[in-house]
Amino acid sequence: MLLLDIGESLVGSYLRYIENCDFVHYQTYGEGQGEVDVIGMRLSDRRVWLCEVAVHLAGLHYGGYAGSRDKVKQKIDRAEVLAERLFSDQQAVYEFWSLRVPPGLASMLGELEQDYVGRGLDVSFVINERFTERIEALRAEAATDMKATAEPAYRLLQILTHLR
Description:
Helix content is 46%, strand content 23%. The protein is of the alpha/beta class. It has a single domain, classed as Restriction Endonuclease. Strands 1-2-3-4-5 form a 5-stranded mixed beta sheet, with helices on both faces. The longest helix has 23 residues, at 64-86. The N and C termini lie far apart (36 Å).
């Protein structure tokens, strides 16, 4: 049994409760090595999110800026292959979520994002302030929601926002 990473649960909760995804799946393995951390599907507009999540409290470090950029690119490329194989009839959105990314690496990821967009892919990097904004939106939603949930991160946000 695979253990659910709390960062992945946050992203899955965002997809379920903010993007209104009908299905959220974690740790999906394609052919070969590697996995896609979180996949969300919204049936109404045939949109699928393929998300990679790296919630490293000390910051994103995969061996220097260039090594980190290359590792992130590898993850997105792997998600693209999976989307082409499993979701070719849906609009794919690729996101990389990371809590803390140093400015120099953030700039490199911005360039990488533009490269993908230039190829016609919907790729975005949910990093730093954007990460915080999305988690704050999720927290605000959890504060208004009293229904039980199977999403551990969302349930924790519900509890924390309903403390007396």
